[in-house]
Automatic annotation (TrEMBL):
The entry's keywords: Cell inner membrane, Cell membrane, Membrane, Protein transport, Translocation, Transmembrane, Transmembrane helix, Transport
Protein name, UniProt field: Sec-independent protein translocase protein TatB
GO molecular function terms attached to this record: protein transmembrane transporter activity
GO biological process: protein transport by the Tat complex
Function as written in the Swiss-Prot or TrEMBL entry: Part of the twin-arginine translocation (Tat) system that transports large folded proteins containing a characteristic twin-arginine motif in their signal peptide across membranes. Together with TatC, TatB is part of a receptor directly interacting with Tat signal peptides. TatB may form an oligomeric binding site that transiently accommodates folded Tat precursor proteins before their translocation.
Subcellular location: Cell membrane; Membrane
One Gene Ontology CC term in the entry: TAT protein transport complex
InterPro entries (UniProt xref): TatA/B/E, TatB
Native organism: Comamonas aquatica DA1877
Xref: Pfam families: TatA_B_E
Length: 162
């Protein structure tokens, strides 16, 4: 930038005082100050806009790199899944051939009736019910309420019979 020292500013001030005059100098100085402030704000706005555009370009490049990486991952997953499906088909075809007895091996023939898979038995739990850690018999003995009742229902329950 321009190198302006104290001596140069004093020289410019003296020339302005002689040329403009002492009456108009404060108004001119105020006007010059506002113009310099506007110029500085304009320059800072331009710098900010340039920085934003540079960051936007960087973000676009980063977005493209992430998209290409995602495409590569998608492609590898697709090829791996197709390889898995192919291997799975081969294995299931081999197993079905083995079960039907069409395939012969060194281990002898396989009888599907000899190996019976265990039948699934439901554990009989109702997972919707909340099960407490304290047994019901203990709650009954200790007098802990296990069911919520309204006040009117409690009065009706414990009302003496006539």
């Amino acid at each position: 930038m321009i190198d302006i020292g104290i001596s140069k500013l004093a020289l410019i001030g003296a020339v302005a005082l002689v040329v403009i005059g002492p009456e108009k100098l404060p108004r001119v100085a105020r006007t010059v100050g506002t113009l310099l402030g506007k110029a500085q704000r304009y320059v800072s706005d331009v710098k900010a806009e340039v920085n934003r555009s540079m960051e936007l370009d960087e973000l676009k490049k980063m977005k493209e790199s992430v998209e290409t990486a995602a495409r590569d991952v998608e492609q590898t997953v697709h090829t791996a899944s197709s390889d898995f499906e192919k291997d799975w088909r081969e294995a299931t075809d081999f197993a079905s051939d083995y079960d039907s007895g069409t395939s012969t091996s060194d281990y002898g023939s396989y009888d599907s009736r000899s190996a019976v898979a265990p039948v699934y038995k439901n554990p009989g739990k109702n997972f919707r019910l909340k099960r407490g850690a304290v047994p019901r018999w203990y709650k009954a003995r200790a007098g802990v309420r296990t069911h919520v009742q309204s006040g009117a229902a409690r009065v009706a329950r414990f009302k003496p019979k006539r």
